[in-house]
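Lecture 7, part B: from sequences to assemblies.

Below are the input chains for today's worked example.
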Amino acid sequence: MGPLLMLKITENDKRVIIALLFIIIILFVVIGLLGSLIIRTMKWQGKKCDTLVSDVVTNHIVKTPHQLRRYAAKKNIRHFIKQAWIPIIIIIVGVVTYIIRNAVKNDWAYNPFNINDGFGSLFFVWDFSNIISTPESGIGVLLNWPTLINQPHFEVEAICSYVAVSFVIVGGLWYLVVAQAYLARTIRAIKLSKRVFEKSLDNFDQNTPPQQPQQSNNSPVQPM
Amino acid sequence: MVDLLKAFGRGILYVLAFPFFIVVLAIFAVVGLIAFIIQLVKSIIFFFTGQQFFPELPEDKELRLLKEKEETKNKPVNDEPTPAAQVQQESNNLVFEEVFDEPAFKEEPAPVITPIPTPAPTSVEEACFQDLNKKEETKEEVPPSAPIFEEVKEEEEEPVIEELNVKQEEVKEEPISPLTDLIEEEQHKEDPLDDFLSALEEDEISTPQEELETYKPRGSEDSFQDEDNDDNHMGVDINYDD
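Predicted structure of the full complex, as structure tokens:
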């Protein structure tokens, strides 16, 4: 059955399948590269944890992995709060702008993304609803190109939505980056708590005598 | 090609792990937001109780104490340079810098004047009235010696007077010169007119007043003085009563 099925595939179908596979491979490669980039960024963000806890660790004030994790968690959350107050304030400003606009106009059903007096007026908008017809056979047919229903234009009444949406988007992305850094520092602290207090016996041999401390070069030469 | 395949495999893994990553990230974002709100409430309480925004952790406190101990151990005694030595050091540094910066053809480098550092005033009043305060301070130092100064004045004045008196006495006790002797002799010589008058008194010779009067021209100094002194013969009589 299998070879018969394969024989039924035309040359055009083969080309289409190869093209689709190629696109999928490219897509996953791009996703892999983006993931690698995110991981590198998180490693770089996690290095801050070393700075936060290094003094306490090097001076042997923290002596167990549990103590290190606790201390690192406290320092991490403090650093997160120091980094997060700016994006949070930006988000609050956006939300307050939206609330004030709705309160002044007494319009609590206002959609800030609409294309008439909202943030959507700044973008191209197409109508895809009537381009495909679905006959009884179930196969869609492309009838026409989508019609353009909005061109970018500035609307004075939509200023509040511009401010609110842009502030919320910027603040939200900023806050996500800060939260990602917090996550990265936490992961780094867990790794450090395992590695710093790790004791290895890989190069230890119980039969070899312990090494004598080396004499310094400045020590006087004893007479024969 | 191998790297491309590795990236492809990682892409598949990341696509599978991405939802979990998003969930964990959301959890951390929410936890962070809750911590932020709690810290905000705490900070309001700390503000009114006068504490720090982030109180010192016990580990940090222990570290601080440890560092302070090490600093006190490593700190040598009398190692702090004096202000004069610091100024000297600064001036030395400046000299080296300028010598190296100057061109090679200059034989004698310009003398370096280093300003002596003065303590900066802590307030406007101090900056404006510092000199006045200094003067007042110097004045305040004087009062214990003020009465002594007056006594000294009196003591100084008295010797001056004594010196003057001594000088006067010295002038009085000076020996009489020969010229004064001659003058005195001349004064003590007997006047012939006096002798004549005394003889007349002795002989009780009465002579008329007219004979004794001598002629004096009118307008001379003596007659003028006499007319002035004598009210009866003053001026010219313009009434011609006589």
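Note for the exam: Strands of chain A lie at 125-127, 132-133, 141-142, 147-150. Keep this in mind when comparing with the next example.
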